[in-house]
Amino acid sequence: MADVEDEVAFAGEPDSFGRLWTPHRMAYIKGENKPSHDDAGADCPFCAAPSRSDDDGLIVARGERVYAVLNLYPYNSGHLMTVPYRHVSMYYDLDEAETLELGLFTQTAMRVLRDVMGPHGFNLGLNQGPVAGAGIAAHLHQHVVPRWGGDTNFMPIVGQTRVLPQLLADARAELAAAWPG
């Protein structure tokens, strides 16, 4: 059996850093099963999610024009998105009723996350277009990311991974139970 130093040298130059391997992230990095920016309809995960059960679609709450769904690749535990049912790419494409409900759902998401998970703050974001960082640019979605003091620790920098202390299914159930109405 080779010693540890030989194994490290095989994987790369030995140094003082330990390595944390997250091979499951490669599917996300390569964009497997992610629609291109021109895809629409049945190929769009945000159009498909509402046709699934709440558990299978990770849906936290459903409104008349908008729904809240957990992010499959979260930055933090509780990272969810408010999404219009209608397939539009830009915020200015929403009608007045969709704009209002998107805002109200975002406020409710923040309140529910505060009550259930106790974050110290939030990041809210609409990334519109591929150059603005939208992973799925063809369907508008607003990120609601709960933040805690110290949640930007060494793990993402050194280990290129995040520590999420709760399974998505458990977070979905807890948030859905606390959602009003």
Could you say which structural class the secondary elements and strand pairing correspond to? alpha+beta
- CATH homologous superfamily? HIT-like
The quaternary structure here is single chain
Major sheet characteristics: 5 strands, antiparallel
- What gap, in angstroms, lies between the N and C termini? 61 Å
- The name of the CATH architecture is 2-Layer Sandwich
The shape is globular
Overall helicity: 25-40%
Q: How does this model look, in words?
A:
- The protein has 181 residues and is an alpha+beta fold.
- It has a single domain (28-178), classed as HIT-like (HIT family, subunit A), CATH 3.30.428.10.
- Helix content is 33%, strand content 14%.
- It is built from seven helices and five strands.
- It has helices spanning 4-11, 26-30, 45-48, 54-57, 96-117, 154-159, 168-178; strands at 59-62, 66-70, 80-84, 121-125, 142-147.
- Strands 1-2-3-5-4 form a five-stranded antiparallel sheet.
- A hairpin with a 3-residue loop joins β1 and β2.
- It is globular and about 45 Å long.
- Residues 6-10 have low confidence and may be disordered.
